[in-house]
Amino acid sequence: MKTNDLIEKNAELQEKLNEENSSYYSNLLIYVRSVALFRSEHDSEELLLGILQDILDAQNDGITAEEYFGKNPKQIADEMIKNLPIDWLEAIKTIFTYFSFFTLFFGLTSLMDESLKFDVGRYLILLVSITVSLRFVLWLIGYTTYKYKSRLRKFTLYSSMVLVFSAQILIILLVDTPLTITIGKVLGTIIILGILLILVYLFIKNKQKSLWVPFIPIVISAAVVGVLARVGLLESLLKSDKSKIIAILSITLFTALQYLIIFLYNRKKAKAQESAQHTHCS
Amino acid sequence: MSDKLNSQMLKGVLTGCILILLSKEELYGYKLSERLSEYGFANISNGTIYPLLLTLEKKHYIEGEMRESENGPQRKYYLITDSGLAERDAFLEQWQELLQSVNKLAGEMNKNED
Predict the structure, then answer these.
(1) Candidates B50, B58, B71, partner chain A, best to mutate (most A CBs within 10 A)
(2) Which of A6, A31, A266 is nearest to A142 (CA)?
(3) Residue B70: CA count within 13 A, CB half-sphere
(4) CA A194, A195, A196, A199 torsion: positive or negative?
(5) What is the tens place of the pLDDT at every residue in A8-45?
């Protein structure tokens, strides 16, 4: 089966799990999907689906997921992941997508500088910093999945992501290196659009990467503001001293707005599903 | 079987048993754990068979194939390969030797205690 189908089937079947088993299995799912990031997604999804089907069989026989699978899912998951092949092509695609995404976002905020200077040194520092941060967050997800209760875990993850994000913003605002180059307006716009195209292409091809969906608003915001800036529409705003801060703020606000919309939409959808289930049950 | 059995040993023994079972019929995860229970492996948590299946697949001792199951949905069935059969036989040989040695020791131990 194709990876996409595996993931779809998985989501479908998860609905059949009872509450206890659902929480057991979704922990396993989150853990494996995070920790096995660069392993073959097809193999890991096939494995996860098989386990889900077996847990459902056990559920039908009155056996809980914990009774069936055991009290050490993390240990078992680690062993399974060790046996999954590393998918170099996927890894490179992922890294490249992340790299382009990062360049797009960062490039835009700095290309909006009136002097049209691009601080290559700061770019490289940020690249390292974000790579380390992402690696840390990924590890944190794996670590907290089986150590902390749901509330504490969510809090830990969100606060560390906020911290990490703020750290990057601070670097953008405060770090200046002598390693700068000048990029003209036209060239800058071309670069922005080029990167955007690459990202869109990769995203379309890579539909299984639902992991990237949350980042779409950021990319859209960054691209829009970036192109507008280059095209001269935001010139007056950007001529001020606080241009960098304004750029980041506007992108952040625009992004937050999109997330808010997505959040409200999801909530509405969930409520609709709930009421549909209730009418179905009664 | 007591679940205090040394886990490394259990893994080796389980692996051998999985090969034996798969040489008799093609099975998917849940069915395999049911068979193992029938033969007395009821106390092991079935989660441990999954990494073992992956290892066996990696070594090409077994192969996975998506097939329609009895109730309909596609499941991943495992089949034993030729090298898997050879590995199974090697396991059985080792097991026989081990069994004989341990029984001999245990027999003498009982004699000494009489």
Answers:
(1) B50
(2) A31
(3) 6
(4) positive
(5) 889 999 999 999 999 899 989 988 988 888 888 889 99
